[in-house]
Amino acid sequence: MRASSSNGNSSCLLLGSIVRSCHSLALGSVWSPLKARNPAKTAGLLSCKSMSTNSPVVRVKEKIDLTEKEKMIFDRLLATVGHFDLSTRLRVAGGWVRDKLLGKECYDIDIALDDMLGSTFVDKVTQYLASTGEEAQGLAVIPSNPDQSKHLETARMRLYDTWIDFVNLRSEKYSENSRIPTQMDFGTAEEDAYRRDLTINSMFYNINTSSVEDLTGRGIDDLRSGKIVTPLAPRETFLDDPLRVLRAVRFGARFSFTLNEELKRAAASNDVKDALAAKISRERIGTEVDLMVSGNEPVKAIAYIYELQLFWVVFSLPHEHELTLPQECDRLCLAYMDAAWSLQQLIGSSSLTDEQRRLSLYAALFFPFRTITYKDNKGKKIPIVNYIFRNSLKRKASDAETVVSVHSAVARLLSLIPFLESNGDGELNEDGMGTELVDIPASSKLRVLTGFLLREVKDFWRVALLISVLAYPSPIGCSEDAMLKHNELDKRKEVFQAVENAILKLGLEKIWEVKPLVTGKDIMNILQLKCGGPLVKEWQQKLLAWQLANPAGTADECLEWMRQTHSKRIKME
Question: What secondary structure does DSSP assign to 164-195, as a single string?
Answer without folding.
Answer: EEEEE-EEEEE-TT-SSEEEEEE--HHHHHHT
